[in-house]
Amino acid sequence: MSANDLRHQESDTLGPHAGIAAAANVSGMDAYRALVAEAERDYEGFWAGRARAMLDWHKPFSKVLDESNAPFYTWFEDGELNASYNCLDRHVERSDGSRTAIIFEADDGAVTAVSYAELLARVCRFANALKAYGVGKGDRVVVYMPMSIEAVVAMQACTRIGAIHSVVFGGFSAKSLNERIADLGAVALVTADEQMRGGRPLPLKGIADEALGMGHCDSVQHVFVYRRTGARIGWNSPRDVWMHEAMAAQSTQCEPQWLGAEHPLFVLYTSGSTGKPKGVQHAAAGYLLWAAQTMHWTFDLKQNDVFWCTADIGWITGHTYIAYGPLLCGATQILFEGVPVYPDAGRFWRMIERHRVSLFYTAPTAIRALIKASHENPDTHPGRFDLSTLRVIGTAGEPINPQVWQWYYEHVGNDRCAVVDTWWQTETGGQLIAPLPGATPLVPGACTLPLPGICAAVVDETGQAVPHGHGGLLVVTRPWPAMLRTVWADPERFRKTYFPAELGGATYLAGDGAMRDAHTGYFTITGRIDDVLNVSGHRLGTMAIESALVAHPGVAEAAVVGCPDALTGEAIVAFVVWKSARPEGVFAAQMAAELCAWVASEIGPIAKPKEIRFGDNLPKTRSGKIMRRLLRALANGEPITQDVSTLENAAVLEQLGLPR
Fold this sequence. Notes:
It contains 19 helices and 30 strands. By secondary structure, the chain is an alpha/beta fold.
């Protein structure tokens, strides 16, 4: 988009709070427009300037961007640096290292803090331990850990010696873990005896043993085990090694391995349309640059801030905004082991109050659950807690309904915090479209405008731009440093999935639908491309229908999927969580009819669900992600064939229509 496009009407927006804008890292829309214009004038110069300002280089780069082998772009390729050095050493070298790096709050409320100097010493010890057991540059290490300081240590230690880490979410099953280990040819696995969630111990080592026993994992030579609970576990000697014992014999000094800018930093698996997960590969320098830059821009990070991202390290949000971004900027951050509703739904707000959090980043799913909980138990309402330290509150992972956005702004942000609704993906490495707290006027439900240097657009299936006010495909038309480099061991899948020939072979296809406001130019994400329903020839985004349902005063949460229909081609099935007791019998029928009428009045009769099912919750992973594939199977009356071991609440499937 051009700088001229940014001179839009802003009369219906919420301007940034005066106290935030005055001291912001980017203060006012004129400053934002200036950055956008700078990138337009000299694209490579813009990124080179950011790379030199944000990162310390062992060998300076001379070449910024190579587009000769599109879409396999490279950035800063003749430069050298180290991720761990940029996250830790440089902060210790420039001070005494006493600044708190991580405040860890365990599931039971116990708090442990480590300084930058202490964290560096731990990372060096484990890096030396990995080397002692034969792990080196280019080797793959799978991390299957609970939320913990030790998980961050494991990731940072890999980067220090040039090993490539791949974190697997601690809620995934043995089969999922096995697939990832096998695909990577990992030489080592880092895990724990157990993890604690909501007061319950959950096995990790046992699942890891099961995964390794499924075959195709002969590459794994050692399993490092973090002792979290002290539970009795199976042991395979000499393969299995206690993490603390391996570290105890090692030095707190470990020279970082200086690596080329394009050296793979990590591989993170994400769902694929074929069912086989894709190993998204990120390169060191470009990813680190954008992790640091977005901390500075999107969160408006200051020296005295306390930052808290509630994501799990098993997801990209936990990578960029826990394991790397805050540490690159020398920030103090919160790391949380537990869940938002244990011991009650006031946990998040109590932690913000206790730790004086100023920057808070969570998922819309969590917010919706806490809205529902606050109706059921007013003592857990955020208004009962001192949240006065908050300045910026953000969301990630999915679009946020305008009604949920408004509640978040009013009750958590107290009508004064900037709400940063961010759009990005595992593949993008960091946020691409998001408001800047001190600059961008806010609109509930809109992720607003691309960050400076990001060339986002909305196009049709042929790659032609669609007019503002019309929906289309979200694309990025120029490469950016943090973009994925390839799909691990499958470059052709990378090309076909993300840079299809239909769009010219050099434009990134996000897989999301979007629309730009006719007046403001703001982007609104309408849902995944495959979440657009075709009802009687009308294309309806599931997000719009879900937003309409959640706007009803009785609805806490909703998810919408499609199912085949002989008359309309596709019919709408809605799964709804009620704020009070789950409707049943005649009352359920009455409420379903009322909701259908409500949606018709909000969107139009064509958007009325054919069927509405009520549940106490929606099927979600332990990280809070709605399992929409399961909902599609339920809507179509199909048997559940996929792994449900990652569900937080598998019992809800019967309520939503799973045959007994």
